[in-house]
User: Fold this.
Amino acid sequence: MTKFIERMYKMFPWVNVNTGLLFLRIGVGAIFIITGYMKVSDMPQTVGYFATLGFSAFWAYLVGVVELLGGITVLLGIGIYTRVSAKLLSIVMLVAMYLLRSNFEMEMTPLLMFFVTFAIICTGPGKYAVLKEKTE
Assistant:
């Protein structure tokens, strides 16, 4: 099995950690851009939904903007802001998990997105990013 994996790496040199991080960022960024845009583009409905959950309009606007701009930042890999955005997005997902705790099936998506954003916090954007993180 090990020789098979080694041959695969030689056949496909682009298969590496940085390519994996790029695909991870593309998927996560796209999901948050779409959900953020859906919230921001129909703000009256978003505010109404957040009101049913007991949150003020401020939180509806904040979550919509964090998801939209955070998704863009994660997708592009904009230096240290990738990790900052991933932290904010993971907080949003923790709150979503808490709100959906009574419905296990509905809780799975925020749970998955929390772990993915947490992985981005741990790794950073990787080699294929618009701006590189400054390491000291």
Observations:
- DSSP finds six helices and no strands in the chain.
- Residues 19-123 form one domain.
